[in-house]
Specification:
Largest sheet: 2 strands, antiparallel
CATH superfamily of the largest domain: Rhomboid-like
Number of helices: 13
Order of helices and strands: HHHEHHHHEHEEHHHHH
Number of domains: 2
Radius of gyration: 32 Å
CATH class of the largest domain: Mainly Alpha
Strand content: under 5%
Amino acid sequence: MTIQQLLKTAPVTTLLLASFIGLFIMQVLTGVDANNPSTEALLKWGANALPFTMGDEPWRLVSSAFLHIGLMHLLFNGFAMYFFGQIAEPMFGSAKFLALFLLAAIGGNLLNNYVTWHSIVEGTGQPGLSAGASGGIMGIGAALLIAALFKISVNGMVLNLKSLIFIMGINLVYGFAVPGIDNAGHIGGAVTGLVIALAFAIAYRQRMTIASQNTPNPATYDDRYRTTYINFPVSSDSDSLANNEHFNTVGFDNKSSFYPDSAVNSHLNTHANHSHLSEQETPTKSILIWQLLPWLIMLLISIGFIWWWQDIHDQILQVLKTIE
């Protein structure tokens, strides 16, 4: 897929990749080692570090997702974003895809800080720093797992569940096997992506169910709007004369054209139109509610993350006051 095709199909993915590469180039141009950046340089460019992130710089929860520790780290995450993004973004929509990535990245960083903080309290660990888009990418991968499980199609194609499980499994195993990998960040991102994707999938299935239930049956639809004709029996001359005299008594003359079915049809069509409109309004409202569900879940997750950050922040302050 060319850059032009990727930009058209997955604009947010393209912009994320451009931001990863652009930030890395800016680092190198300012003297940062491309393969082994220093701790000071990473902190300067926005890495996630417990004393800073959980102190007065919570913005590092997001900035660290765009920062990478060396060229190989950038290439690995860039390839994963390219692979997952061109599938996930058209499926979930650009706005939801971006929200998914950011929340998964924040969730991964928060879990990393939570684990780090408790290891410090227990005396089994020490402060460190982390960076990279891995948490957000793992969230996207987990979301694709749910999409495959619910058989949500992308351009008519259903994702291969076994292949996605294999790819996600390799990433998790690699994280536990190789030292220096942010396992908590990967797990936190994946769990966040799973929760958000479940809301996507449930909402998608409910919308499809409502749409299928409200698709008009062709036979019923034809009957609803079919014109009803009233046929009068062929009468003798004397009967015709009697009928004409009857119509004259109610205000119709012999020269007037009278269609006895027109009034009936008008009433039937008016009733059918009102009925059809009322039926349309109900599924439209229901579909709108399900469309809002993923956004509601992401809002609740955001509120939960704020509370989580505040809780760890308060614990750190309390310990510092005790030490002083």
